[in-house]
């Protein structure tokens, strides 16, 4: 059985949701990334920078949420969470995953952990504010790209959808005006209503996730 190392509401939630969606056998271990669980030699042996998610499989450790999502989708073709090789739809799915990993995710990191980016204490707050602005811009771009789409790929739910969900959740968590993101808000409502996503949210004991 695989083991998911996660922190509630972190990017690992997307993996948790896809584990539930596919019925993949797993156990989940909570790692308190704010309480130092990720800064132990034991955890650093799983992830050298102490990040979640990690999926420990019988074939070795997997890190990087998008890679884990692709792995699960390919392991469970019956769940139809990733279009066939050679299709534009598959590349579109990778486009969403890479967009999320390179645009909103690092911007949120600049907001949450600005002290890691600057040596000068006086620069911490400006970097945090810039991170918040960049993150908001990223959510607005995702909103524009989602306009007119039921799911990220159009008609079919895919691994891109729970991945996009986490950035919306973070935006709401830090008090961004997510009401100004109509397509993203509707997308979030659809993703978070899925039974598998609800199970992952409940397992992580996140506060009730509604569409507002
Ligand atoms: N590129 C990695 C990023 C992983 C990452 O930054 N995880 C965050 C939570 S969303 C984390 O573990 N943060 C703990 C820390 O920065 O100390 C991925 O996509 O999996």
Provide a short characterization of the protein structure:
51% of the residues lie in helices and 8% in strands. The chain has 212 residues and is of the alpha+beta class. The chain folds into 2 domains: 2-79, Glutaredoxin (3-Layer(aba) Sandwich), CATH 3.40.30; 88-193, Up-down Bundle (Glutathione S-transferase Yfyf (Class Pi), Chain A, domain 2).
Beta-strand content bin: 5-15%
Quote the distance from N terminus to C terminus.
36 Å
Bound molecule kinds, no repeats = glutathione
User: Major sheet: size, sense and barrel closure?
Assistant: 4 strands, mixed
Structure write-up:
This protein has helices spanning 12-22, 41-46, 65-75, 88-102, 104-112, 124-146, 160-173, 182-192, 195-203; strands at residues 2-6, 26-30, 54-57, 60-63. With 212 residues, it is of the alpha+beta class. It has two domains: 2-79, Glutaredoxin (3-Layer(aba) Sandwich); 88-193, Glutathione S-transferase Yfyf (Class Pi), Chain A, domain 2, CATH 1.20.1050.10. Strands 2-1-3-4 form a four-stranded mixed sheet, covered by helices on one side. Strand 3 (54-57) and strand 4 (60-63) form a beta hairpin. Helix 6 crosses helix 7 (160-173), helix 6 crosses helix 8 and helix 7 (160-173) packs across helix 8. The longest helix has 23 residues, at 124-146. The protein is globular and about 50 Å long. The relative contact order is 0.15. The model has no long low-confidence stretch (mean pLDDT 96). The structure holds glutathione. Glutathione is lined by residues 10-11, 33, 38, 50-53, 64-65, 101, 113. Residues 10-11, 33, 38, 50-53, 64-65, 101, 113 line the site of glutathione.
């Amino acid at each position: 059985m695989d083991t998911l190392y996660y922190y509630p509401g972190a990017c690992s939630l997307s993996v948790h949701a896809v584990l539930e969606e596919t019925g993949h056998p797993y156990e989940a271990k909570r790692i308190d990334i704010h309480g130092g669980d990720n800064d132990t030699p034991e955890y650093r042996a799983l992830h050298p920078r102490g990040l979640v998610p990690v999926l420990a499989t019988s074939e070795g450790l997997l890190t990087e949420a998008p890679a884990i999502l692709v792995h699960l989708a390919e392991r469970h073709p019956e769940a139809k969470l990733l279009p066939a090789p050679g299709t534009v739809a598959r590349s579109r799915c990778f486009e969403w995953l890479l967009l999320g990993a390179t645009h909103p995710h690092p911007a949120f990191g600049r907001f949450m952990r600005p002290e890691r980016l600057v040596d000068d204490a006086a620069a911490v707050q400006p970097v945090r504010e810039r991170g918040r602005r960049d993150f908001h811009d990223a959510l607005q771009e995702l909103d524009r790209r989602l306009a007119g789409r039921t799911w990220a790929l159009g008609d079919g739910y895919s691994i891109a959808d729970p991945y996009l969900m986490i950035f919306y959740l973070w935006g709401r968590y830090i008090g961004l005006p997510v009401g100004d993101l109509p397509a993203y808000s509707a997308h979030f409502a659809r993703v978070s209503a899925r039974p598998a996503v609800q199970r992952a949210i409940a397992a992580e004991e996140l506060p009730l996730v509604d569409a507002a």
